[in-house]
Design a protein that fits this description.
Metallo-depent_PP-like, 319 residues, 4-stranded mixed β-sheet, 2 domains, alpha/beta, binds manganese (II) ion
């Protein structure tokens, strides 16, 4: 393989995917799948959720993976779909992801659009997706490349993918170390602000939050201000702008997430907006490819041609 095209979270946007495949130079081959000699697509997961063309996205992508013109890693929405579908072996009627009104509503678009036998087939496919891919010259994961979490997964699963229902049961048990490892890889690590004696912040819906995302992609980040990202339009309880986080050094466990590899890592998940920006969307060795396709109408890929440092000119936008 001479090159990889890493494609961000598709979230059921089949038309954008078609347009992006064209821009990247893929054509439908005899097998019925998009292909391009010498190149392979790598999807970062989250094919489903939200968008209106989920079945079409699944058909297109699975055909590519089956024919060998693409690879894929699992996103948190594929994991959630499997957990929502899987009954707890010891608690009949209960599912690994509880079928609460909130979870069901979040999942509605997938349940409505992907039905019956097709759903069963795709869930089986989701369940077996690798949680990360180390392709030698590049690495791909849905949310965070974190080797200690990968070691926990390998210990529990025997590899980088699930192979038994029992493993999903463990991954859904908040007391099990596998739960946290999967959270880190598929949803990204978080810092507890209360541990730093900081007040919760309030998101745009007025919900208090005490956890901040870790900007694991920021090179050389060591202080709380450098490492933590608050979500959305954050305010204090009294409605004022939340103060800048203190520039204090965090403990080694919290800064262990910082990516220090020499190999470029590609990830999605973070709902970035606008066009790729140095420092927040890409660094020398990392590039986010999720630019909120379902919200912004812009599905994004990174066209990798062998470089060991990210080149912003290699981003390709569907829009
Ligand atoms: Mn995601």
């Amino acid at each position: 393989m001479t090159g990889y095209d890493i494609i961000g979270d598709v979230h059921g946007c089949a038309s954008l995917l078609t347009r992006l495949m064209g821009r990247l130079g893929y054509r439908v081959g005899e097998s019925g799948a998009y292909e391009q000699p010498g190149r392979q697509v790598v999807f970062v997961g989250d094919l489903v959720d939200r968008g209106g063309e989920q079945l079409q996205v699944l058909e297109t992508v699975k055909r590519m993976v089956d024919s060998g013109s693409a690879q894929i890693v699992m996103g948190n929405h594929e994991f959630n779909a499997v957990a929502y579908d899987t009954e707890h072996p010891d608690r009949p009627g209960e599912h690994l992801r509880p079928r609460s009104e909130k979870n069901t509503n979040q999942h509605r678009a997938f349940l409505d659009q992907v039905d019956g036998e097709a759903r069963a087939g795709y869930l089986k496919w989701f369940a077996a997706m690798p949680l990360w891919l180390d392709l030698g010259d590049i690495r791909v994961v849905h949310a965070c490349w974190h080797e200690p979490s990968m070691r926990v997964v390998e210990e529990a699963l025997g590899s980088n993918r699930f192979s038994a229902r029992e493993q999903f049961v463990r991954a859904s048990d908040t007391e099990d170390p596998l739960y946290e490892a999967i959270e880190v890889l598929l949803k990204g690590p978080e810092i507890d602000l209360a541990k730093h004696r900081l007040e919760p912040y309030y998101d745009k819906d007025g919900h208090p939050r005490s956890r901040a995302r870790v900007a694991w992609w920021r090179e050389n980040a060591t202080t709380l201000r450098q490492l933590a990202v608050l979500d959305g339009n954050f305010r204090t309880a009294s409605g004022e702008a939340y103060p800048e986080l203190p520039d204090v050094t965090v403990d080694p466990a919290e800064s262990s997430y910082t990516y220090r590899g020499d190999v470029p890592v590609f990830y999605g998940h973070y709902w970035r907006s606008g066009s790729p920006e140095a420092g927040s969307d890409y660094t020398r060795r990392s590039a986010c490819v999720d630019f909120s396709a379902v919200k912004t109408g812009n599905l994004v890929a990174y066209r990798w041609d062998g470089e060991d440092e990210i080149r912003p000119g290699h981003y390709v936008l569907s829009a």
